[in-house]
Prior knowledge:
The chain is an alpha+beta fold. The protein has helices at about 5-20, 110-120, 140-150, 160-175, 180-185, 190-205, 215-220, 225-235, 240-255, 260-270, 275-285, 290-310; strands at about 25-30, 35-40, 45-50, 55-60, 60-65, 70-75, 75-80, 85-95, 100-105, 135.
Amino acid sequence: MTPSSTSKHSAALARLIQRHTPADGIHQTAIARVVLIRAAQPSEPLHALHEPALCIVAQGRKQVMLANEVFHYGPEQCLVVSVDLPVTGQVMEATPEAPYLCLRVDLDPGQLGALMLEAALEPTGTPPAGPGMSLSPAEPDLLDAATRLVRLLETPRDIPFLAPLFIRELLYRLLSSEHGANLRHIAVAGERLDSVNRAITWLKHHYAEPLRIEQLARVAHMSTSALHHHFKRITAMSPLQYQKHLRLQEARRLMLGQALDAASAGHSVGYESPSQFSREYGRLFGAPPARDISQLRSTLQGQARAPARQGNAST
């Protein structure tokens, strides 16, 4: 296929996503593990724990920050996330007439490994320095499979029979493409990735507790030095930095959703010192807790009023 066919498939995917997202937001679909995302205006930076997924932008542009790395992507590109990562995402380019449109397919690493074995796809080249997140062009065959997958939403009776086949094809196209080398290494990373995943799972459930690296190493079945090395290679941060991101994101959620004050929110996620909490919160979110939450509420209220001002622009 030619570059022009890439643009054609990307435009077709954008039309389908827009048809099935009548309003801004994250839309779960009738197809398991398939999510559609729409935004009619640029967004504020959003801090979240990104689970393993394939993301294809059909229209608009976005940037994602992982530690000190910044990933910019737009149409005809795809982002692959292989482990749970605390990231900062921001829609950079979107208007009511040309909204940001994205397809997300949640990944099952086990399915990827099984598909590689069945298709006899071997890892090639040097293992990536940081396989937790990678960005690559979305090739025409991949976009074609993605378009046919989303088009199934127009024929619901076909979803139980064809959706698993189309998802399988989508993953095969991704794995077998020139730019699928990173994902192939991820799919067969074996014990080291499993060990880091065990550590990540433990941190997600125990982020409010004091972090003892020896205990985390035992959970991961690794030495402390090996855990530090492989954890940072995969997530771009140390276990302590990872825990800090989890704590601060949860504290922000508690202040925004449950109206907790900063001291209570900080204490609930494991901070003993309010000043330390406020200092680290400001470093991550760019403002002290009270000011950040006030600004965030104002932004959310403005977005809630936006559909009324836009009339039928989003339909």
